[in-house]
Amino acid sequence: MTQWDQFARDILQKIVDSIEIPESHYKAATERYRSLSDWLHRKESTIADDRPEVYPQGSFRLGTVIPPLNSDCGYDLDLVCEMRNVEKDEDSQANLKVRIGAEIHAYAKAHGMDKPEEGRRCWKLAYRGKPSFHIDSLPAIPEDEATKNTIAQAIRHQNEVDPSVAETAIAITDKTSDRYEAITDDWNMSNPAGFATWFEERMRSVALKRMETLVRDPVYAKVEDVPAYEWKTPLQIAVQLLKRHRDTMFAKEPDMAPISVIIATLAGRAYQGEVDLLDALDGISKRMAGLVRSQKPRIPNPSNPVEDFADKWNATKEAAFFRWVDQVQADIRTIRTGMQPDRLRRFLKTAFAVTASDEWIAAACAAMTPTVPAEPRRVTIAEAPGQWRDG
User: Where in the sequence is the domain holding 12, given as residue range(s)?
Assistant: First the structure.
């Protein structure tokens, strides 16, 4: 630890306060996907007998949501619409997607919403109002038992999570599949519920005190009822900070940005139970790069180790990932060495797209001891080689 660690913690807390979304947004998201679920189960629903189960996946499930850099863009809420009473030998991917899509179209019309858009895998639905949401509903059915057994065996070999998470594996629709129109057992596989189970296990011991407090208050009846967004562990917050840093760094080249599931996976693996946010973020950033395997799968899915989250990497995207990790480490070093007001203001803006008031900047810098030395004299170069970032 350096003499500036408290200063660094103050900076991190400022960033966290700026990017944390209100609890009301999580609750609004919950209300909206439950509203869709109720619609699919209503008496007139054409798919009610298929036992549709709607549940969140991704950052809303993990409690790692951050606001978009552009406030007009709204939040993305990823859902699974799993038809529990359908098997692979009963329906094609195309027909399943059409049947679910018909109900989503009817839901949108009944609620005065824009017509849903069909994506490669999902139906996209836009909610108006505040906060605005873009909801992607992924049609799916339960995986067959043979596939689940294969996944469970791979999980045992990887030894990261209990093999029982294979039971939540699902088969999903994909328009680019050669067998999209056919009734076949050749579907793409996913397991967002299993991934969430693994991620939650990585932080459960640290979260337990917070969860027990919420049960004692009482806000929830039992620990198992506490949603992940209420846990607020250093791992979750570190993932939020890393995602914000990523968004800021790649704002002009978003296609090069590491995807969120890679960040969550590597951060979860790198996390060693640190209870201090600065320690957690520092440790995670130093260990992440070393967790990328040299052989495929480069970044295996903990809930299905044969799936590679880095399967879309080419040389350019891989280089961008390691460049980003290096920048994260450099920026952590920067906040641990102290900054004068002007440099701190620039740092918050360029590294995390956070704007701090003059009063906060002055108070943060005044609290530093010993006094930070004056910055060196600046030299103006007539022909600058381009824009450089602090840190």
Answer: 5-322
